[in-house]
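[audit] Reproducing an earlier prediction to check determinism. Same input, same settings, fresh worker. If the tokens differ from the archived copy the diff job will pick it up downstream; this log only records the rerun itself.
[audit] input (240 residues):
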Amino acid sequence: MSKLAFECEGLSVEPIVIKSSRRKTASLEVKNGELKVRVPKGTSEHWIQQFITQRHAWIIQHISSQLDRQQSYQVNPYKTGSVPFLGENFPLNIQMVSEKSSISFNQDRFDIHLNRRISRDPEVVTNELLQAWLVEAARDHLISRTRVLSENMKLVPVTIDIGNFKSMWGRCSAKGDITLNWRLILAEPDAIDYVIIHEICHLQEFNHSAAFWKKVGGYCANTQVWRHYFKERSVWLSWR
């Protein structure tokens, strides 16, 4: 174990040190319970250790809160027996069958049929079936909803597409193309609308200025509530 490692919530944290000749200052980043330390090239391990120690309380606080979020919102359908869809948790009914593996949604649950002769991990197959189904549901719901909202706002994107981003819920390009993360389909409808409105507003304000947020607030109440909502559920972005 490295000298930089320490304990947090009963877990060993091994900081990832990133050295760069272009960097002049040191910084810390906590993401998904992982600590990254960015420092100038040539920085000694002793200095890095002191830097971490001085900010230990901040690090512990952020790692602890992220671990709490992971525990509350981690998507693991095969083990938990449920999956979020449009803001509700639906149970999974998993059965081993002789037919080809398949999935169907019956309004109150997801039915997963796994071929009993599959050689791959059933959890992996279950995730693949669910994600494929959710991507298509996202394509239907998110694109049609974006069209409705953009028409209401009189700001029409050049294209609307579904993406598979690792760190963001949506994106609007400088050319006016909007791409939405398929995992948005896990969220409740009003939360989805917030992200869509956010991206549509970028068609007019390609920044995060006061004018931009005023415009978002004009179409979506409680923007701070929804920003917190997605921060709490950022672990959804890591469901692969």
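[audit] rerun output stored. Observation attached for the diff report: The two ends are 29 Å apart (CA to CA).
[audit] end
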